[in-house]
Structure formats: C-alpha cells, structure tokens
Recover the amino acids of this structure.
C-alpha cells in the first residue's frame, strides 16, 4: 500500500512539474542575467545524475526498493531541470523495477501515464517505441494478452519507421510469446522463423538466444514439422 501511495504522489508531482516552475526556489529577481537559473538547473541535473547512478548500483545488487526510490528522485530532478530525455530514461527504469517486483499496476501507471506522455510531448519516437515495448512486457506479465499484443505491435511499427531491426525483432518475439500463451503455436512459430531470417546476417547473440528460448516453449512435434 505504501509503494502505491509513493507512485501516486510521484506521478502527481511529476505532472505538476511539467507545467510549473520549481516552487521550492525563491523567485528570480527582475535584474539578473539568468545565472541563478543556470546554476540551479545544473545542480538539479547533478542531483539527478547522482540518484540515477546510485539507483543503477542498487538495481544490480538486487536492492530493488532502494533502486525504486532513487529512480523516482532522479526522474523528479530531471523533470524539474527540464531534461526530458533523461526524465524519460529514469521513468523507463522506474517502470522496469516495478515490473521486476511484480508491481504491474504501478509499472503501468509510470510508463503509460507518464513516460509515454513525456516522449509524445517532446516528439521522441525512440522513447515512444521503448515505452511500447515495456508496456508489452508489463501486460504480458499481468496476463493481459490483448493489451500486450497491441503494444508489441505498436513497437514494431515504430521500429520499422526508425529502421531499427533489433527493436523490430524484439517486437516479433514479444508477439510470438503472446501467441504461445494463447496456444496459437503455428502462428507463433511462423513469427519466430521470420525473426530468425531477420537476424540471419546480424551478430546479435542475445536476440538469437531469446528466439531459441521462445521456440522451446512450443510443443516439439510442431517445431519438427517445419
């Protein structure tokens, strides 16, 4: 319950910070060169970078609660200093940690209601694509297969527009996983075979391994027929 409250408060303050100036700072005097704002912004960016770096360390150590709090602080600092690309990065990491902790509702709120809106506002197709991918994973983990399929498909559409072959293959693998869960094995196998063809000339060991692992979820007698 406390974690959910934290997320709701974070979302509230994040949205407010998108449209308001920092109320914790004194008003700028009318006769300045703007140096105060520059220094303040630099300090906020430094704080954000520090929080983000510490969050990464905690995540790698498996200290997910600490990572969660630090990513939220980093996101707030980046947003306040109007570094919206870094803000989006922190939000994606925050959502991913929620997913790792099986906080599906919180993960959905962060990515769908904040990260995706942020990337849409700044016109970042890459950020939108990454948000769609995370939402596909979140909904898949929550067993909301229709939503998962839709977001993986949207990821694939943007990946093709951006000529990002790796991201497109990721979307195809995600779609295949959904189809396997729905026991649509033949359709899933067709997708995975297509993904293998797309990676034939690429040296992407990680994605090739994921395709192999996903294929292993299909009944072997069906795979043998192909």
């Amino acid at each position: 319950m406390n974690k959910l409250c934290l997320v709701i408060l974070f979302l509230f303050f994040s949205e407010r910070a998108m449209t308001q100036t920092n109320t914790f700072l004194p008003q700028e005097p009318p006769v300045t060169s703007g140096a105060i704002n520059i220094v303040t912004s630099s300090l906020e960016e430094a704080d954000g970078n520090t929080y983000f770096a510490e969050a990464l360390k905690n995540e790698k150590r498996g200290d997910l609660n600490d990572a969660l709090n630090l990513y939220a602080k980093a996101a707030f600092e980046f947003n306040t200093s109007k570094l919206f690309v870094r803000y989006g990065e922190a939000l994606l990491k925050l959502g991913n940690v929620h997913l790792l902790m099986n906080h599906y509702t919180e993960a959905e709120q962060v990515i769908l209601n904040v990260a995706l809106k942020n990337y849409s506002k700044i016109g970042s197709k890459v950020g939108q694509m990454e948000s769609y991918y995370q939402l596909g994973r979140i909904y898949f983990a929550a067993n909301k297969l229709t939503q998962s399929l839709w977001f993986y498909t949207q990821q694939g559409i943007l990946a093709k527009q951006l000529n990002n072959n790796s991201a497109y293959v990721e979307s195809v693998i995600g779609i295949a996983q959904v189809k396997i869960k729905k026991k649509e094995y033949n359709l899933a196998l067709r997708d995975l075979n297509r993904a293998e063809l797309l990676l034939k000339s690429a040296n992407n060991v990680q994605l090739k391994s994921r395709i192999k692992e996903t294929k292993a979820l299909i009944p072997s007698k069906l795979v043998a027929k192909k």
Remarks:
- The longest helix spans residues 35-61.
- Residues 12-40 have pLDDT under 50 and may be disordered.
